[in-house]
Amino acid sequence: MVGSLIPCSLIQPGSPLEGRVEGPYLCSTPLRSLRVGFTRAAYLTNIAPLELNDKPCGRVTSGIREPQLTPGLQKDTRLQKTSNVKYRRTCNGKGMWPTWQYHTRGCHCPQRIMNNIYQDGSRPVKQMAAVTSRVRAVRTSKRADKSSPASSHNFAERLPSEILIKILSYLDASALFSISHVNKLLHRLANDNALWKRLCIAELYKNKKQRRAMATKEVLDHAAGYWKWRYFRTVAKCDTFNWKGQLGRISSHTGLPNRTAQVLRNLDVTWELTVSDKSGREGKHELSWSRFSETSVTLCWSGGGCLPDYQQISTLQLHGVRRIALNCPGLKIPGSRSLMEKLDVQTLTKSVQVIGRDRLVELRLVQPGFIIGVWRDQSSVAFIMLTLHFHRLVERSIEGSSVCPYVEPAITPPFDDIDPAHGLHDYQLYIVLHDTVCELMSGCFSQLFCRRTEISDGHIQLTAISRTDCSQRTQVSGSITLPWRCEALQGAMQNCCIMSLTLLDEFKKPFWCVSSPVSMKPEKTPVSYDYDGEHFLIHYQDSDGQVKMELAWMEEEKKFFLISLVVLVAVGKVNKHFSRDY
């Protein structure tokens, strides 16, 4: 009868329990572990639902607390047991006498507990023994989890370092670099000099003499991570030697390698923008999108709330980043950074030009090639767009340092003291008008010259298309617009486009290379019988020269035509390049 309620009528006279009974029932369960259970043969009469509250219920009978039962049920009602009910007795914290508590899984509502206990017997329920065994199993597993050392420490962390390094020695460079981002322990072990030295010898040094020389070098005389840095640097150098042969032959029209864009993609070259505000905080921004054209590439970084306000921008730095070819998805692959441009925006504020605006964005040309899109009636930056010319773009992107840009080697043409007009003739011009989507116009003009008597205002004038010669006019395909996009918004700036210009000297070497967004403005011209439509002027200017293009709208064809193209080169640039004194 242990663990049940014993009716008083079943107690025999002279029993040890006689005299300890004051109520109709006696609980015979031990105090230390009390669980109430009823067998199928136990029928209770005149029993009502138990009253559940926070107060101790029942009355004390000879040191045993008995649950108080109130009448109210019909006679011969069976007390059912459900699988989600547990009974236990705990101390009330104020004395030695325990109190009765009733618990159910998923709900602590007394009404639901009583509904689960007292039923009409119409559906079967599980045995309390199964519940008790399951609860004991759960408690046992919890105690095992708390006491087990494997639950509080990672399995790999309990292995000796020698074994972990032995395991890591079977990984290649990509896997070893990836696993170094798991935790501090693996980061420290994955930077072990012995592991990366083995990779350097196995993968980078194919010659036996080089392998022997590398094997004899000490490993412990360098700081941790030295051989890892040397591995990536050696890989970058090996690829550097290969890309020069992949540029392909020089184009006779542009004077540039034919496969510049392909080499940049093969080398995994990208560009990173560092923006500093007036407080000194710096933010590095990954490239949002890019587009390659025939002689230039257009880059764009979207704001997205990450860029500071236009008035707070202090400096802009452009770095070319060359990533190592590793199979590490989701990780920032190591690589070298090469400084390409550094602009002090605060000093350039006075020279900023607004080259276009639409209903949402205003384009501000900070410097040739750099434009900042600012939301209208606001100071927040929508995007930053930049155009780069292909001339030595690979070298500028990977061969500089993080603080110093690539220095272009000085190429001096052969000196000619016989030709009195040396440096004034045999120029070749290749110009492209395009936007961020397609090409609008391209043309190659050769045999350009300037007479010595025509030098004026410190410029040498090279006329590619004459306004008086209708046979030289060039058609412009499509409308002259500059599409832009950032995040979820996009638009098109009217009367704006990108100009890429390459001027070759008489030796077919790049002499002046320009790539920058430009704007087209209406121009008042005298009445012309050849062009009846409206006229527009595109004027570009920097320290090396100027470019003037005149376009006319033809009503019959509904297209633009380039009717005049003049390039003005600074005399100082010509004198320095050709060692002349014009």
Explain what this protein looks like in three dimensions.
The chain is α+β, with helices and mostly antiparallel strands and 582 residues long. Helix content is 20%, strand content 33%. The chain folds into 4 domains: 5-147, no CATH class; 156-246, Up-down Bundle (Monooxygenase), CATH 1.20.1280; 260-398, no CATH class; 427-578, no CATH class. The strands form 7 sheets. Strands 17, 18, 19, 20, 23, 24, 25, 26 and 27 form a 9-stranded antiparallel β-sheet that branches. Helix 7 runs parallel beside helix 9.
Q: Write down how many β-strands occur, each being a DSSP E stretch of 2 or more residues.
A: 27
**Which class of secondary structure composition applies to the elements?**
alpha+beta
Overall pLDDT level: 76
Biggest sheet architecture: 9 strands, antiparallel
Query: Beta fraction of the residues?
Result: 25-35%
Low-confidence stretches are 1-5, 20-129, 140-152
Q: Residue share in helices? A: 10-25%
Amino- and carboxy-terminal Cα gap: 123 Å
Task: Indicate the radius of gyration in whole angstroms.
Answer: 43 Å
Number of domains: 4
Helical element count?
A: 12
Q: Which descriptor suits the 3D outline? A: globular
